[in-house]
Amino acid sequence: MTARRSDPERRDRLIDVTLDLIAEGGVAGTSHRRIATRADVPLGSMTYHFAGMDELLHEAFTRFAESIVARFEERLGAATTPDEARVAIVDLIHDDLTGDDHLRDQVLSYELYTLAARESRFRSITREWMRRSRVELERHFDPDTARRVDALIEGLSIHRVLDPEPPSRAFTEEAVARITADVPRP
């Protein structure tokens, strides 16, 4: 009898490879076969770890959203004043969420948004992401302002990636300052 190959990280590797493939070719271009090949695992092991592609996609996008929320929590958690929170928001938009190093994350975000728009099961991921982002923002601003800032972050992130003349840091600083000017602290 042949000894079974132990691969305790296989499940995590499958999720990571799934995110890589989605970033490269979209959800539509991602298949069990492509994932197994890229992860260097037998195709049959896919069903051992995941009931189907829907479950794998859900877990992959949940992991991805968690990584983005962790950036919010790190940046905004370090801020102790509204002014520091404003700087953290600008840094999130310009340093942590966009730019050449983060293009993959933007593509994954758009793929998740598209999937969530079509399938309610995936909306739970985006809702939790938005909720947790606003929790961090509400540490520094009232709930209405936090919601406005959250929408600004999403919108400016999209413009920073897709606009041929993306908003400058100065533009972002002014937008954040305008939205958060003279608002009561929670």
UniProtKB/TrEMBL annotation:
Checking PROSITE patterns in the record gives: HTH_TETR_2
Q: Which UniProt keywords apply?
A: DNA-binding, Transcription, Transcription regulation
**Record's Pfam families?**
TetR_C_31, TetR_N
Entry annotated with the keyword Cytoplasm: no
**GO MF term (any one):** DNA binding
- Gene3D superfamilies, per the entry: Tetracycline Repressor, domain 2
Q: Which InterPro entries match?
A: Homeodomain-like_sf, HTH_TetR, Tet_transcr_reg_TetR-rel_C_sf, TetR_C_31
The organism's place on the tree of life at top rank? Bacteria
Look up the DNA-binding region in the UniProt entry and give its residue ranges.
31-50
The HTH tetR-type domain is annotated at: 8-68
- Output the PANTHER family linked to this UniProt entry: HTH-TYPE TRANSCRIPTIONAL REPRESSOR NEMR, TRANSCRIPTIONAL REGULATORY PROTEIN
Name of the protein in question: DNA-binding transcriptional regulator YbjK
